[in-house]
Specification:
The chain has about 100 residues and is an all-alpha fold. The protein is about 65% helix and about 0% strand. The protein contains three helices and no strands. Helix 1 packs across helix 3. It is elongated and about 60 Å long. The two termini are about 35 Å apart.
């Protein structure tokens, strides 16, 4: 039927994108875990964990995790929207684009 949305066939899925999405969501979850158990918004982590392994691991998670997973997830979200638009157009379904005036 033209114009209806049906689930995507398994053979047409892009597995690497699904894996990256899962990794990004897991990373965002891990980055946010300290906020779940402490008032991290009111604590400066660099001052609280200022010595030894605590400081190294705090800096590592700040640079590697927080600076990487959020942009990766945002990129994949946009990429998914583009894929949705292209596949909708192939099926003859309108995919409205938003524009800022």
């Amino acid at each position: 039927m033209k114009g209806t949305m049906v689930p995507l066939q398994e053979s047409k899925r892009i597995v690497s994108i699904d894996i990256l999405r899962g990794l990004a969501i897991l990373g965002i979850f891990l980055v946010n875990m300290p906020s779940f158990h402490s008032p991290l918004l009111y604590i400066d982590g660099a001052e609280r964990w200022s010595g030894g392994w605590d400081r190294i691991l705090y800096r590592f998670s700040d640079i590697v995790a927080q600076a990487s997973f959020y942009p990766l997830f945002a990129f994949l979200f946009g990429f998914g929207a583009i894929i949705l638009a292209v596949r909708s157009e192939e099926k003859g379904i309108s995919f409205p684009l938003l524009s800022i005036y």
